Amino acid sequence: MIALITGASSGIGRDMARYLDSLGIDLILVARRKEKLEELKKELKVNVQIIDMDLTIEDNVYKLYNKFKNKIDILINNAGFGLFGDFDKTDLDTELKMIDLNIKTPHILTKLFLKDFIKKNNGYILNVASSAGFMAGPNLNTYYATKNYILKLSMAINEELRSRNINVKVCALCPGPVNTEFNKVAHGTFKLKGLSSEYVAKYAIDKMFKGKMLIIPGAKIKLAIFGIRFIPYRLQLIITHHIQLKKNK
User: If you average pLDDT over every residue of the chain, what do you get?
Assistant: First the structure.
């Protein structure tokens, strides 16, 4: 088997690569930071191709697909970032790049590789969403919105495939806080304790192979996601806003 992972140079993507390596699955690792990819490749035992590429550029997304069309068995859309701040104060260009990377890139890759997988009636697509996908997020507004998109898109595709008895699994990973570089890139630091990216990566891959539609690591986050359905929207927003403000600028 061959897996393609975007955002593979650090965090969850890097640890997914390590875990898939332990399972003997060959890898195509995609990220902007070539030196980080090269460092990771040195520690892996399977066949590894590294692609240093900026996936906020739409042409690059199509180039990536065309390079590996009909050549992979697993697609992991992990690349993404966030940005803290009130909506009227955050940088528009940064937000548009976030929408490109968090929404357009996984949308394009999911659609194109899904068609390949359907032809052979086999394959896995793991879209990294977030527990944020179940809510609206004051002070992390655009990020939450992008994860809502990815979560709901993945769920809808999953049902379409199930209803047609197609043996392709589309799954959404919805972790809470994870100890990665996310906070540094987003210019904020949550004070909530996060899960390790190693744990989340292994949990996600194991559940993906079992075909689980929603993959939610951690008992506390599972309980929180279950509980929010009983909380009025206004109260959800107040609680989420309070959590977002508990960061260091």
Answer: 90
